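I have a small job for you when you get a moment. Would you make up a two-line entry for one protein for me to read? No commentary is needed, just the two lines. Write everything out right here, beneath this request.
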Amino acid sequence: MLLDRVTLPPLVSLFSSTSSDPLVLATLGTAPGVTESFISLLEDSGDAKETLVAWQPAGTSNDLATRVASLAKQHQTNEHEHSADLKDQVLHLQAPDCRTTYARWGSLRKGKWKDDGLGVELPVVHLQVKDLGQAMFLDVAVVDDRGELLVVRASTWQTQARLHPALADEPPILHLPLRFPSASTSSSGTTPLLTSWTTISLPLARLLGSLSPPRRYKATTGVQVHATCRLRRVWFSEEEMTSEVDEAQMRRGALPELALFKAVT
């Protein structure tokens, strides 16, 4: 695995949409022949400065117009009345079928993770995600101390936690419900959210320990985020807490998280 022999700091960044080369470690996938399946980097506020990074080449100008129109509709339809967009660059993943369009880091497959896996041993993964009101899910592949692979999945359509047994070519899946907060579910019930961005934290070691029989977490081999959503950051930490990145510190060059490729070197 990429980092199985590397001593890691207590905080490791896998992806940051505001870095100079945010997708250097990522593998992107889109649906063949589907114009509205694409991934782009853009400014969250107003969908400005868009750069397509994965898409099916448009066959006609009408195809391109359809894609642009679908992006505009997506933003207008899912804009939160009381929430502010970010002025930062973010990663936008969109598709009619969320299974087809994804950004992946490392490996989630049985026969590949030993060679292509991340090998991050920090037990908590955090993702900054924007809810666009569409079906989306994310997968995190982990390996236990016996070398057995398991995928932790969180999706917007799942209603309760369920463990799916392994298949011939697929590892077992711990499927968790994913619910984004809204103004109606805020602590007071009336206070609107300031932003539709959410930090999702998965305590991987604790989740594996809750299984029957319990498993001991060893490392994360892969992370895969599926459409339709926006992604700002993915990082790992030692503690079960959301370690938000201080933007002012980053501009001063005192970034409290270390980029993954930096840790390798």
